[in-house]
Design a protein that fits this description.
This protein has 14 helices and seven strands. By secondary structure, the chain is an alpha+beta fold. One of its GO terms (cellular component) is membrane.
Length: 429
């Protein structure tokens, strides 16, 4: 059919016959644009074919939880944890599960050591590991739900639930960072209050007294400062921080190796997440050792505060990206540039042909939904191009884009026919 946009006619394609049902049982009365997705062909519906269900999200979550916990889809051997650990072919799942197991061990060890050895920095690092652990479970659940096939109510699939999971992880990180930072500041002010009593009168003594006096008006901090006893830091806490540095650096290296071999940006991001954890553990290690060497300096709570800043920065960064996906922000500049490069190659090949089929590509849009990428574009073609030739050209465009970006789920191409005169004008340029 021909669709008019801005006064110009635009060809739009469909591969299904009118009235044909798809796998979801929805009947298509075709006024669609043609698009290709990883789940097969998808078709946009006309005004008369709309799905308006108020309880879609709640029902999808209920069904998703039920299927995740009890269905054969979840229990299938191809996604069984044991099989993932044993199977060399699924190295991505295997390395992710190894990281999950490592986080369980590190969270427990550093948490107990930080509590019993009175190390704020190690306790803060354990909080970071705990947020990673909780995040791993959220990611595993949202990943399973997001991989469900499209339905009549969710014709574009469930990939956005992965973004929802990412948002939850970011909020966990931010909440943990604020709690750890507040606790570290409380300990720091308590230490400063004790230090002020040992200092001679002077500007430094006055400044510390003023700070602690203001802090005492805050109930939670004031109660800490009011304690008349302190707990000595056990220098053996440094061993746990050192073990965390070594373990996380090892996880970074083996995860990055698999990510490079599999060309997986998701695994690569996870690898650098392990590296950031190693850095935060290194901060905790330096703080603990510094407090042992210079016991009069409050290095341990300062280290705990610095770790909280690292976690907060990471959480805000993740939340910013997730918010962009939830609000359909454009994909990153590097992504759009790679799409443009792939299309420019097609244009060059077409212009070199005696009878070019692709004259111009514009209005390129791309957005991320979870791990998937959706692309829309307008392609100008000769008005004499047949439907069969247009379909072949569309397949060529889709193939070129997926060659450039493996995560592309769907490409929606709108064809704009150009008259012969316009075609020659394009070729001259």
């Amino acid at each position: 059919m021909v669709n008019t946009k801005g006064g110009e006619s635009m060809k739009r394609h469909s591969t299904k016959s009118p009235g044909e049902k798809d796998k979801t049982g929805a009947v298509h009365d075709h006024a669609p644009s043609h698009s290709h997705g990883i789940f097969g062909h998808s078709h946009s519906h006309g005004e008369e074919d709309g799905h308006a269900h108020g309880g879609d999200v709640a029902e999808a979550l209920q069904k998703g939880v039920g299927e995740f916990l009890s269905s054969n889809y979840y229990l299938d051997s191809s996604i069984n944890i044991q099989a993932s650990l044993a199977c060399e072919a699924d190295r991505g799942s295997r390395i992710t599960l190894i990281g999950l197991a490592a986080n369980v061990v590190l969270t427990g060890a550093k948490g107990l050591a930080g509590w019993y050895m009175n190390s704020a920095a190690l306790l803060a690092d354990a909080g970071h590991a705990l947020s990673d652990l909780l995040g791993d479970f959220v990611v595993l659940f949202s990943w399973r739900l997001s991989r469900r096939p499209p339905t009549a109510r969710y014709p574009y699939g469930f990939a956005k639930f992965e973004t929802v999971g990412t948002t939850v992880v970011a909020l966990l990180l931010i909440g943990g960072a604020l709690g750890i930072g507040f606790h570290s500041i409380s300990l720091l002010l308590s230490t400063l209050a004790e230090t002020a009593d040992t200092l001679p009168a002077g500007p430094l003594h006055t400044a510390i007294e003023n700070v602690t006096a203001v802090a005492q008006n805050i109930p939670a901090i004031g109660s800490v400062i009011g304690h008349d006893h302190t707990h000595a830091l056990d220098p053996n806490a440094a061993w746990f921080a050192a073990a965390s540095v070594v373990g996380k650096e090892w996880l970074f290296r083996i995860t990055k190796k698999v990510a490079d071999e599999e060309s997986s940006p998701v695994l690569l991001a996870n690898a650098y997440h392990h590296r950031s954890d190693a850095y935060s553990s290194l901060v905790a290690l330096v703080a603990i050792m510094g407090s042992s060497w210079f016991p009069t300096l409050p290095l341990d709570p300062i280290g705990g505060f610095l770790v909280s800043v690292v976690i907060l920065s990471q959480g805000v960064s993740i939340l910013r990206g997730a918010f962009g996906e939830l609000t359909d922000a454009s994909a990153s500049p590097s992504t759009t540039h790679s799409i443009s490069r792939a299309l420019n190659t097609l244009l060059l090949n077409s212009s070199a042909s005696p009878s070019p089929t692709l004259l111009k590509v514009h209005d390129i849009r791309a957005k991320r939904t979870g791990a998937l990428l959706f692309v829309d574009l307008v392609a100008e073609v000769p008005g004499s191009l047949s439907v069969e030739e247009t379909t072949k050209l569309e397949e060529t465009i889709v193939g070129a884009l997926r060659e450039a970006r493996k995560e592309i789920a769907e490409v929606n191409v709108k064809f704009r026919p150009i008259s012969t005169g316009h075609s020659e004008e394009h070729n001259d340029h």
